[in-house]
Amino acid sequence: MLVLRSGLTKALASRTLAPQVCSSFATGPRQYDGTFYEFRTYYLKPSNMNAFMENLKKNIHLRTSYSELVGFWSVEFGGRMNKVFHIWKYDNFAHRAEVRKALANCKEWQEQSIIPNLARIDKQETEITYLIPWSKLEKPPKEVHVLWWNESADSHAAGRHKSHEDPRVVAAVRESVNYLVSQQNMLLIPASFSPLK
Length: 197
Description:
Blueprint: E1 2-9, E2 25-26, E3 36-44, H1 49-64, E4 68-77, E5 83-90, H2 93-105, H3 107-118, E6 121-131, H4 153-163, H5 167-176, E7 180-190
Antiparallel strand pairs: 1-7, 2-6, 3-5, 3-6, 4-5, 4-7
């Protein structure tokens, strides 16, 4: 289970408030090397969600032969339903351009996945992100990986409740809430082919 929390703040500086964060991403020019991560979100037509996922499960090997898939999830709740979220790793922007060109020329990928799935997608969004300098992306000790790690939705809710009783968290939230413009939480369920669960 993955809980993704995204927020828009008035200030560029950010704080890590909870010790359960496994990896942190930032947008903007904070990277020290060329490596970046592309967050892609596809909004699917409800009647096509299962067909989209089955097609991708069968053909994902064609896509992953060009660049590294970090993870692939579907939204369980939080925002619009029938949505998938995936993360791809690139060495730099030239690498991404090479991959995009190679995929456009890969007849098998185009015919088996892109053409059938394109009609199933309502909307697409993409965002370029970087790991913040002091974090690293790792495989977790269990078969569950989240940006905020939890055994279940219930344990996530219990942890949030407990953190609201911690005076340090309460003080940090009070201090930073003035910078928050919006925030969205999503519970994401990993696809069977997702490297990170």
